[in-house]
Predict the structure.
Amino acid sequence: MATTPPVTSLTRTPTMDSELSKPTVGAVVSSASCGQVLADDDQPSRTSQLVALTRAQLRRPHTPEGDPDAQSRLCSGMPPLPAGWQRPDLEARTRFFDDQVLAAISAGTSQIVILGAGYDDRALRFASPGVRYFELDHPTTQGDKAKRLGSIQRDRERLALLPADFRLDDAGAALATAGHDGDASSLFICEGLLVYLDPRTIARLLGALRSRAAPRSTLAASLAVHRDGVDSEQAVVIANSRRRSAMNEPWRTILPAGAHLALLTRAGWHIEHAGPLPRDATHIEPHAAQVGRDAGARGSLLVVARPA
Ligand SMILES: C[S@@+](CC[C@H](N)C(=O)[O-])C[C@H]1O[C@@H](n2cnc3c(N)ncnc32)[C@H](O)[C@@H]1O
């Protein structure tokens, strides 16, 4: 019989409010999207639902044990995608992270940690003997996901759901408490997450992951970047002004590629690969005339990093 996966409780290490509104790395947080205006904590993440609903339409691989319908089943009953909703970039991004998971499993990695997991279905789609999944997300979204998983998940030992607000909670401590083995290699995934966090929180989260990363671990992340020479605060403000979900889930960090990669490096990660999503290439090329006129133009950088 299917059982609801356990949602582990956490000890909070509160962060000063003033810290939340004080960007220390690069210029990032607009007055409209800074720490005083936090995401709507009472509702499950709608951006995560939109990503999941889009992903449910894609043809994707799965492991022999995995559930090819997991994404559709997790999305059951969600409000549908808005009319005209388009995210063609999600197919390439999904492929990148699917490939990272499959490569990690092939290489013998036994722990896959998904930060800001939302309604990510990979724990079910890529279920594999001996592989444990740990998912961390905001408690409200995590609670909704636990309910949805309760009716479809077969093996709760293979997936730990950890409620965590990265602004307040220590992801490293949460993983240790949940039985994550810091001496065994892990794949850490930050897909579509870091743009929602302020730079200080990003630095703390990446440092916490580094502290749990045994040799041969991997960090795979998508970063929101803009071209050099554009004011980062202005880029955030303009990008949010074009988003319907900016009020509840504002973007907080968009940086030039070099500055964003430096955040990872300072947290103890060695960048092995960093490349744009195929359709984003023109958005971050310095010579693109379109970008020259548009301070809000941005792109995604897909990164693979190892413990330095
Ligand atoms: C755009 S969704 C991406 C979800 C998932 N990674 C995917 O690709 O399907 C961003 C996710 O980050 C989570 N998130 C944003 N801010 C967070 C925070 N401070 N602490 C924990 N999770 C957060 C949201 O709840 C949401 O699930």
Observations:
- The chain has one domain: 40-307.
- The domain at 40-307 is CATH 3.40.50.150 (Rossmann fold).
